[in-house]
Amino acid sequence: MSGSANNDGQNRNLELLDTSGTRKLYVKYMVCLRDRRILKSILDDIGFNYEITFHGAIHFLEEYTDAQYDELKKSLSETGMILLTEKESTLIDRIIHTIVEVIHHSETLPKLSFHDLVNKHVISGEDSVFKIFSDVNGMSVIQFIVIQKIERAKELMLYEDMPIDDIAEVLNYKNKHYLIAQFKKTTGLTPRYFMRLKKERQNISKNYSHSPTSGVGGVSS
């Protein structure tokens, strides 16, 4: 192989590095659990050291060869899936990070629409990235946002003991009725169910803390 070809391969590997020095790439059309199992089998067969993140990215834990990279692309293509480029993967990752950060780590959600918010923090004027997001995650950006908002609502109910009216305000719903309707549509359950669940969990914890054997280490003879 020529020096130029070697440099091209090295440059490609460097381009795939994220800021932490590891690579993270997404796969297009991997939209169900069976797809994940197929991907895992391919990665294992090729010999990658990796983990698949919660949101479906392949997080490569160490360097890999150009031959491994090419084999991965070929094997995925044979199953109808596509390995995204570093640029595309970075955009998807930024969209996910922006949405999760705003919903789960803001005291109150901004009034700015999420479409505008993503364009502001990720990229402006490229609607195609939202289609790629859907192809990667099997859902639209809007649906992903809804799911994250409902997850935050669960947390606020279970861990913050926050009333539903206050949760609706924090998550920027018009009123609690919109939140309740979306909550039920997304989970199939009502917020009232989760409030009851909180009480049941508290009772379990309370009963355990008063148990004669709680907090006792070792095994009795």
Can you tell me about this structure?
The protein is mainly alpha-helical and 221 residues long. It has two domains: 3-83, 2-Layer Sandwich (Alpha-Beta Plaits); 89-199, Homeodomain-like (Arc Repressor Mutant, subunit A). It contains ten helices and five strands, in the order H-E-E-H-E-E-H-E-H-H-H-H-H-H-H. The chain has helices spanning 3-15, 33-46, 66-78, 86-105, 114-121, 128-137, 141-159, 164-170, 176-187, 191-209; strands spanning 23-25, 27-28, 50-52, 58-60, 82-83. Strands 1-4-3 form a three-stranded antiparallel β-sheet. The protein has a two-stranded antiparallel sheet with strand order 2-5. Residues 1-21 and 216-221 have low confidence and may be disordered. GO terms for molecular function: DNA-binding transcription factor activity; sequence-specific DNA binding. This is HTH araC/xylS-type domain-containing protein. Keywords: DNA-binding, Transcription, Transcription regulation.
